[in-house]
Specification:
The chain contains seven helices and 15 strands. A hairpin with a 2-residue loop joins strand 11 and strand 12.
Length: 287
Amino acid sequence: MSLSLRTEYWDDLAARGAFKEFLITIHGLDLLEWETAGYWDYAYTPFSFFDGEQVVSSVCVYSLEAVIDGAPARVAQISGVGTLPNWRRQGLNRELTERALEWARDAHQTVFLFADTDAIPFYTACGFTPIDEFVEFVEARPVAMKGGAVKLDPGNKEHRQRIYKYAERRAPVSEKFSVLNPKLFAFHCLHSLKDRVYEIPALECLVCYERADGRLKIFDIVSEVPPAFEQIYPYIACDGDREVEFHFHTDKLGLEKLQARQLFGNNPFVKGTFPMERPVFPYTCRA
């Protein structure tokens, strides 16, 4: 049977269902909770080969509103890439990637992705270039702890709605590089950050964080007016903190003695050039 290439098919619920099954098969990722909560995002555009009603190969482009060097921008992230085993080594992903890039090229300032290690040769062959990724950090200093950070449960409807309102109203956490997409943020809260979302009511902000072995990792700060770090830290501080690591640029946090180190393992790639040096890719920008 010949394959059909389809894109922008989210309104066809049978085709959307086939895509969801494909993601579970290829990536072990179930989008049902995200979809049921009302966060399905039409800015996430599929390019898929169908064999009848089954998705056999797919590439997606997530079009993301962003801020780069203080100016509004739109960036594209490639994700959801894969081919079912029986259809591999036929150039399907290569063709879909080329079509996706052609579609994204003129409307986006840059195109990037995070590659699985075994996919690095494929993206290199497609003309992508690896780029170093960094995190910023400071040594933790003793503070008078206030407490008062409230852990939120994204599985709770009331909490989830509160989280989403913060995301809809958020200001950029950085003027160097931020991504503004409340539905993608909601995805992270339902998956990778599910047990790491805290509200500080006194500061009207969310802080997504975890700590291990004396390192406090902050993944995002979400607020209409992001507070300085010295305001936030007393609410989330712990006596054992030796270091605070930030997974986004910290130019708006008022930090001193800031350091940076390279982050390994995510394998970021860009098509062409990236519009800044030494980027800290925001954790919650990852599709």
